[in-house]
Amino acid sequence: MPESEVARWDERYRTGDTPWNTGRPDEELRRVLAEENIRPCRAVELGCGTGTNALWLAQQGFDVTAVDISPLAVERARERASAAGVAVRFLVADVLEPLALSGPFGFFFDRGCYHVVRRLSVQRYLDTVEHITAPGALALVLAGNARERLDPGPPVVTEEELRTEWGRTFEVVKLREFRFDAELPGGVRPLAWSCLLRRVARGQAP
Q: CA-CA distance, 85 to 45, in Å (whole number)?
């Protein structure tokens, strides 16, 4: 990503302009892991922010690696992990470039990274995800829903876009609408997609 993107995200964390950052583990992540009985394994979170969900996954027994482009966010995530006595590998990196990660990972979590970076290069992002997962891996992607466009609000994606973009190497196992935990001014919780995916082999029809 351009250096301006790094600076922009660092500034948002520095000033506290992070409406998505509730400080609590994501409700939808917790629901899906429980209902789908997803067992602890090697997991990766792209766009981890200050690490709330990565720490929670580690506390559930997952072997977690977490990535963000903001050095300040990762610094705070490492501080939180240290204070909590939780082992998570945090990495400052650009998800649109090849990541120096020792995959493959059995579970991949994305809460709001995909719907941001797809505007820059969805193909490069999906290449990254494909590189770090193997056929059979599960993924949970939470993204803004284009059926409700808010300003201010999260970037949004249509169901068709989501299915088309992820359909290259993932099967859509379950797709449902829900509302993000974080509240915008006025107490509005943005409409979102919860997309549970399973990685398939390249060239294999989902």
A: 19
